[in-house]
Design goal:
The complex is a heterodimer of chains A (105) and B (171). Chain A is mainly beta and 105 residues long. Chain A is built from one helix and seven strands; from the N terminus they run βββββαββ. Chain A starts with a strand and ends with a strand. In chain B, α2 packs across α3. Classes of the chains: A mainly beta (105), B alpha/beta (171).
Chain lengths: 105, 171
């Protein structure tokens, strides 16, 4: 689902994404444990294809575990040569991400 | 409370796959094992996979090679645990619904570690697991700290560091 040009993954439903660019942004969030505002780094990827359809959207990652799965593809924007099938399960701190990496032919 | 560990294993496996298997499709954090057929009938295939996800074991990666599925566990701390899990995970590959499209293929096992020892190698040979040492520069510091972990000097230093993190509210 694309909501206000952000890709929102539905729990348990795989989405196939292709990325064209990325930035690392600072974002102020409310820490769920302390209730206080905290600044976090967010990896924001530009998406041009979602499940085979052309889109102009962003995919935003705050979780370190998930960012680590894509981190090796950031230098030189190497993600452009791959499709990523991402399935999120669980909510909040219990979220998990299964990531399929498929080289583009 | 200051965080006491870093997410190094997810980074380790992602970098290892990129460096060694980037020409093949692969899946990181793949759940393994059966999903109740009754649940699939009542809830549908995708929803049943989602519901059962927290209760299924999860292998760090599956590489789809032309004739084999290569299952990979990456470990930094409890390396024997990683070795012990692999044969058990292998037994689940053939019944995993998400992997049915890639079968029939043989199943190979690989343990990716930042460091090894002779006993680990002996056990791995016995269990038909290939051990791969992968230690990028950023991991060296972690591996060194593992070997110093039980020394009094390291524990004192670590306690100081954790207190400072707590004091400054740094994660």
């Amino acid at each position: 689902m694309v909501l206000e040009n952000y890709v929102m993954l539905k729990t348990g439903v795989p989405a196939r994404l292709h990325f064209t660019d990325h930035t690392i942004q600072k974002r102020t969030v409310t820490d769920p444990l302390t209730g206080k505002p905290a600044t976090r780094n967010v990896l924001v990827l530009e998406v041009d294809r979602l499940d085979g359809r052309e889109v102009a959207a962003k995919y935003s990652i705050m979780a370190e575990t998930h960012a680590n799965q894509l981190a090796p593809y950031l230098p030189g924007k190497e993600y452009r040569g791959y499709d990523f099938t991402i399935t999120r399960t669980g909510e909040g701190f219990l979220s998990r991400w299964t990531v399929g990496v498929i080289p583009r032919g | 409370m200051a965080r006491k560990s870093r997410q190094v294993e997810s980074r380790l496996v992602a970098e290892y796959l990129k460096e060694h298997y980037s020409e093949f499709p692969f899946i990181m954090k793949q759940p393994l094992g059966v999903v109740s057929e009754e649940l699939m009938k009542t809830e549908g295939y995708k929803r049943a996979l989602g519901i059962t996800r927290p209760f299924r074991p999860e292998v760090d990666a599956v590489v789809i090679l032309p004739s084999y599925l290569l299952i990979i566990e990456a470990k930094v701390w409890n390396i024997v645990n990683g070795l012990a899990k692999l044969p058990l995970y292998k037994s689940l590959v053939r019944v995993t619904p998400e992997l049915q499209q890639y079968l029939p293929r043989g199943v190979l096992m690989q343990l990716v570690v930042g460091w090894t020892n002779p006993n680990l190698e002996i056990m791995a040979r016995e269990m038909d697991v290939e051990v791969k040492i992968f230690c990028p520069e950023w991991l060296r510091e972690v591996v060194e700290s593992i070997h110093k972990y039980w020394t009094r000097e390291y524990q004192e230093e670590r306690q100081k560091k954790l207190q400072m993190r707590e004091y400054f509210g740094v994660e």
